[in-house]
């Protein structure tokens, strides 16, 4: 009976070691994909920062255009035609720059929305894949344990032979029986009385 339990324990230890190896492989693959997803997320965040920078530059161009128009008005009131013409051209240039930056900002925002939607799809796909891999490992482990237990039931005969007691166990058992026999049949006599002379 002891052999059955020892073999079952050894088999379970081996299966657990294999399971740890399989789980480590799944975890490694999933970890690599998650690291790539993190890298993609950082790149999307960088794109968002660039769009914010474009927005800031657009706002600055609008402010500079407004300043030039105010300066143009002051130059016209002061009768400075050359300064007024310069301020008008500069204001128009800032307006064109602001329009270009506004188009670039809108385009960047649209691309970021698209990238974020794609990233969400990738993240959900990775989560599904991770769950499927975990389920596969769990099923493989369950099937392997069932096979091992079925194998143990089939290979071991129903009437397993009991192990033979060791010589020490036999000796101590016999000694115990002899001592009980002496107690039942009267007082102990000196063992030297039984020595052959």
TrEMBL record:
Region (Disordered): 142-197
Assigned keywords, A-Z: Coiled coil
Entry superkingdom: Bacteria
Bias (Basic and acidic residues) ranges: 142-174, 181-191
Regions annotated as coiled coil: 37-64
Annotated source species: Bacillus daqingensis
Protein name: PspA/IM30 family protein
Taxonomic path: Bacteria, Bacillati, Bacillota, Bacilli, Bacillales
